[in-house]
Design a protein that fits this description.
The chain is mainly β. It contains no helices and 10 strands. The strands form 2 sheets. Strands 2-10-9-4-5-6 form a 6-stranded mixed β-sheet, with no helix packed on it. Strands 1-3-8-7 form a 4-stranded antiparallel β-sheet, with no helix packed on it. Strand 5 and strand 6 form a beta hairpin. The N and C termini lie far apart (about 40 Å).
Length: about 120
């Protein structure tokens, strides 16, 4: 079955950086686009970034464009999210999911990112 394990979250000060990782298994990772979503307390889950299976086409939400970068390593079945210049409004649980922008419905447990001084 599809398994997604996110890691790399934590507490960071405003302006800081974090790099999230998501290790995938149970499906043809190298043939799949991947996306990152996030869910802040009391809010709906929202799209953050997507990457095609080749790692060539990227899409980032307006709220994170220029600060976050999605990437992948098909040899490691891993997708990454480099987050720079973090803001308090980036505080959320971050999830990876197969699919280009729209999730195929499989989710991991998520990793919590807290941006606070």
């Amino acid at each position: 079955q599809v398994q997604l394990v996110e890691s790399g979250g934590g507490l960071v000060q405003p302006g800081g950086s974090l790099k999230l990782s998501c290790v995938a298994s149970g499906f043809a990772f190298r043939d799949s686009s991947m996306s990152w979503y996030r869910q802040a307390p009391g809010k709906e889950r929202e799209f953050v970034a997507a990457i095609d299976n080749f790692g060539i086409s990227l899409r980032h939400a307006d709220s994170v464009r220029g600060r976050f970068t999605i990437s992948r390593d098909n040899k490691k079945n891993t997708v990454y999210l480099q987050m720079n210049t973090l803001k308090s409004e980036d505080t959320a649980v971050y999830y990876c999911t197969p699919g280009w922008v729209v999730s195929t419905g499989s989710w991991g447990q998520g990793t919590l990112v807290t941006v606070s001084s």
